[in-house]
Amino acid sequence: xxxxxxxxxxxxxxxxxxxxxxxxxxxxxxxxxxxxxxxxxxxxxxxxxxxxxxxxxxxxxxxxxxxxxxxxxxxxxxxxxxxxxx
Length: 86
What we know:
Shape: globular
Strand content: 35-45%
Number of helices: 2
Helix content: 25-40%
Oligomer: single chain
Number of strands: 4
CATH topology: Translation Initiation Factor IF3
Radius of gyration: 12 Å
Order of helices and strands: EHEHEE
CATH class: Alpha Beta
CATH superfamily: Alba-like domain
Distance between the termini: 17 Å
């Protein structure tokens, strides 16, 4: 599954475009975010992506989960959003 990493400075519309492209190609994607600002941008991106793929007859759903990832040799807890069609 393709993983898209989102930061607090990510542009939600750009992430949504990338997410829509991955969904059209692979059918599902994972969005990872660490921190409140990044999670905010990730959720906005999923909402925008829903509008991008709706004309193709795809209704998106998102399943939130925790993920342990390593950043600069340090373990961090990320939120991962598994996005796919309903």
